[in-house]
Amino acid sequence: MRSYQPDLTPPWKRSAPVPEVPAEPDLVVEEVSTGFCGAVIRCEKTAQGPTVTLEDRFGKHRVFPMEPRGFLLEGKVVTLVRPGPGGPARPTRTASGSVAVPGARARVARAGRIYVEGRHDAELVERVWGDDLRIEGVVVEYLEGVDDLPAIVGEFAPGPDARLGVLVDHLVPGSKESRIAERVTGAHVLVVGHPYIDVWEAVKPSSVGIDAWPVVPRGQDWKTGVCRALGWPENTGAAWQHILSKVRSYKDLEPQLLGRVEELIDFVTLPD
């Protein structure tokens, strides 16, 4: 018979127990050693022990061992365990990848705003981030171009409690858009952009069912040229509704747009 061996570790050196959390699909956690944050995709049994696969909001997958105290859940250390049969229901997620808040009511609109260039940009942001924006009380408006942005910013009069974020199409070095952005950027104004000629290109081709977005010759209306190249009717409004209908979540968008919109939301909602 084995004799009892007392634990002589001083109490202040003992590790406090942490909760064991079933690694249910869509649970969002952070791996403590790498800081990788993502949603649970699956759990697997391996020769080295159980592993969990996480997917971040850009679609990147990483596999981690399910070690004790190996993850953070809402900032608190937890141990992930394999879910058992009939475990808890999956947490509901918004289209942006955030955990949904059941029964949450829209917040009264902030003084801060996010401006985008056109109606299509606004509709795409609403499709993916609409739930998050309502909870945060952020209103998105469209400008119909950026030529008048300096005057619009001046009229808006941004300040510490009324920050302004602006999303610009085709914001590349040396462009007209980049020069305008430099004129208005300040402590309470953030202008960011994506490299695409139009926000259509920010939707992944695979989500739309095409191999790639066509290259449209200079001097030709880009949207009309895309319709021609793809053999679609030259009705850009109908084409956009078709594209938008294929966007179901952040996974259907390119990272170059995802990161910029998240940056703007943080800018207008976080305190100094």
UniProtKB/TrEMBL annotation:
InterPro entries (UniProt xref): DUF3097_C (IPR021447), DUF3097_N (IPR053883)
Residue ranges of domain DUF3097 in the record: 20-83, 113-269
Superkingdom: Bacteria
One Pfam family per UniProt: DUF3097_N
Entry protein name: DUF3097 domain-containing protein
Species whose genome carries this gene: Streptomyces anulatus (Streptomyces chrysomallus)
